[in-house]
Design goal:
5-stranded mixed sheet, Tachylectin-2, Chain A, 5-stranded antiparallel sheet, about 45% strand, 22 strands, mainly beta, about 325 residues, binds beta-D-mannopyranose
Length: about 325
């Protein structure tokens, strides 16, 4: 099959991104996702304070790329740092963490912050992340210039992780996917919910989207990954699914298609992960066997996507796919 002609039309809805980082699918690759040839793109110790930079988020900016990155300092505390790149592959980082302008001193004390997501809605970029507020919960802020960051109220009570906005309002409502969780280290809850807000301050109408799966790869917990990708057939959601083994957890990447007008409604959910830890930087690191997707760049002209993911809580890595091939795969392997 001719790769180029099969993607002349794409279900992907979005602007062209001609400078998207990209490598063609290698000959003989059987999967629907393939890894960047020089992964990891951010190695250990990328700047003096940072031991590992991973689980981070990237957006196109003018003629280059910028991002909000999770950097674990050598003391193991994670902070959010700005990064910039000419090509989405070679990154340089601000050495000082992002400072948020807070509407309320009660929200100000950010003694750790991790796993950011970025979502553009109208002319604002919203950043959501996980931080401590008497237990882990979702922090939120907006910016228009990536210089001033205006913090919003926390959408949810602790304990919650992985706050991921839907990238446009539906009716007069913002929607956020999230993963409420058990207290402390107890893994007794870990399913994906969808919540609504008219003003990004008060959130409600919480609805379960889907729960942990019956198959081992996602039976412990699941959580939304990158900002969902709009397609003509629904929101394509990449998510992480966690398996338990006698040697610890294994984090893989799953995929589901959500209804465009009601993202709490699942149209298709793939019974297989589309990526599991296989490369050495995914199987061995600070936390072995973790691939954790948090960001996607998409080219509306070709249906190409570049997926940024954290590997072993140590590295940032990049993988590629065609949206249309993922759509086909999720539909033909529906649970
Ligand atoms: C999750 C989060 C992620 C991390 C993953 C694997 O619970 O804390 O930040 O990548 O565990 O350790």
């Amino acid at each position: 099959m001719n790769k180029k002609s099969s993607h002349n039309t794409t279900a992907l809805v979005g602007e062209p991104l001609p400078n998207i980082p990209w490598e063609d699918k290698p000959e003989g690759c059987k999967g629907i996702i393939w890894r960047h040839s020089t992964n990891p793109i951010v190695d250990i110790n990328p700047f003096p304070n940072a031991r590992g930079v991973y689980n981070s988020c990237v957006v196109p900016w003018e003629d280059h790329f910028i991002g909000v990155f999770r950097a674990d300092w050598h003391c193991m505390t994670p902070y959010l740092h700005m990064g910039s790149s000419p090509d989405g592959i070679e990154w340089t980082f601000d050495e000082e963490p992002i400072r948020f302008i807070s509407p309320d001193p009660a929200l100000e004390e950010i003694n750790f912050a991790y796993d950011p997501r970025i979502c553009k809605i109208d002319d604002r970029y919203y950043i959501t992340w996980c931080y401590n507020f008497n237990g882990p919960t979702i922090g939120a802020a907006w910016t228009t210039d990536f210089k001033s960051f205006h913090q919003l109220e926390n959408p949810f009570l602790p304990y919650n992780r992985n706050g991921v906005l839907i990238p446009r309002k539906i009716g007069d409502k913002y929607l956020m996917l999230s993963r409420p969780m058990g207290m402390g280290m107890a893994v007794n809850y870990g399913d994906i919910f969808c919540s609504e807000s008219r003003d990004l301050t008060y959130w409600g109408r919480h609805r379960v989207v889907f729960t942990r799966g019956p198959k081992k790869w996602e039976r412990v917990k699941i959580g939304p990954g990158p900002t969902p990708i709009e397609t003509s057939e629904g929101w394509l959601l990449l998510y992480h699914g966690v398996a338990d083994t006698c040697a610890g957890f294994i984090y893989s990447v799953g995929v589901a298609l959500l209804d465009l007008e009601d993202p709490s409604r699942v149209l298709y959910r793939c019974r297989f992960p589309i990526m599991t830890p296989e490369a050495s930087y995914e199987t061995g690191g600070s936390v072995d066997n973790v691939v954790f997707p948090t960001s996607v760049l998409a080219d509306g002209a070709t249906g190409r996507i570049a997926i940024y993911y954290g590997a072993t809580d140590t590295y940032t890595a990049l993988a590629y796919a065609y949206v249309d091939e993922i759509l086909e795969y999720v539909k033909s392997n529906h649970t």
